[in-house]
Amino acid sequence: MTSPTPLGTTVPGPGTRRAGHPRTGIISNSRSHRNRTRGAEAAVVPADTPNLLYRGPRTHPALAQALREFRDAGIELLVVDGGDGTVRDVLTCAQEVFGDALPRLAVVPSGKTNALALDLGIPSDWTVQDALDAGAHGGVRARASVEILRGDATRPELCGFLFGAGAFVRATELAQRTHKAGAFNSFAVGISLFWGVAQTMFGGQANQWRAGEPMRLQLDGGTPVDKTFYILFSSTLERLPLRLKPFGHERAGLKMLAVDAPPARLSRAVPALLRGSEAAWLEQAGYRRHDVRSFTVTLEGGFILDGELYDGGTITVRQGRPLQFVTP
């Protein structure tokens, strides 16, 4: 039996790769939740694995340098070992480095939230070695990313999968508090959802949750609408944690939920929305779903992309090109 080699160096190998294993680059976030709790033994692969490059960058410049090295080495598979935030950072940088030649991707769900991995059907205990095996023998699923462009830019500033504004920002802050209390993934989503709805339902008229946020929203280049929204939520994922269906039936593409402020008939609307009801009364009450290629929103408050808060302003949210993810 060969001894494992810690992921932290380039693993040497012969000039031709071992049959079945693609040339692979691994980006690992040592600060992600599971990697911290499992310790160094989690990040190991067999020492005889050829054509394997590993980097654990801690800054954005270091990440860019690592990806350039992967590109120059001609990798065929890019493994991201981390949570949704790590995937966002890697994809954002990789789109710039690789352009249209982005290799296949694999996600090892090691973060506090792993919504993309859940959508792709990746087991919660998947390892780097499992990702390598899937790169050789597994399936492939396509998912388009959510791209964020600021102002008149033509290239995306950010690439992720879950966008939100308005009450979504406060709900994310709640989720981060549940992480500190030891709640993660679907459990954290459930707690945050419960408290967010409670704050909205039982708060007074001046309650921040109910008041919403003024925004200018333009769908697919149509007529801009100035309105106060309770929440904007958008994603290209098909399956969300807890089997929630705020966009209705599961489907591909960029989907959006826009809820007027203050939200009406909340005690009835929330259960209906989350189970995917497409009853006509929901739209009449100000709960509107849209399938779009892009939308532009101007907001003073910030927005969330995959758990991170960014400054507001005028941004365009659009569906990116399909990315290929290896799966079990």
From TrEMBL:
User: Sorted alphabetically, which PROSITE patterns does this protein's record hold?
Assistant: DAGK
Molecular function GO labels: kinase activity
Q: Which InterPro entries match?
A: ATP-NAD_kinase_N, Diacylglycerol_kinase_cat_dom, NAD/diacylglycerol_kinase_sf
| Segments forming a coiled coil | none
Instruction: Name the Pfam families for this protein.
Output: DAGK_cat (PF00781)
Biased amino acid composition, Low complexity: 1-16
Superkingdom of this protein's organism: Bacteria
> Keyword annotations for this protein?
Kinase, Transferase
- Region annotation (Disordered) maps to 1-42
* Presence of the UniProt keyword Secreted in the record: no
Question: How is this protein named in the record?
Answer: Diacylglycerol kinase
Q: Which organism is it from?
A: Sphingomonas desiccabilis
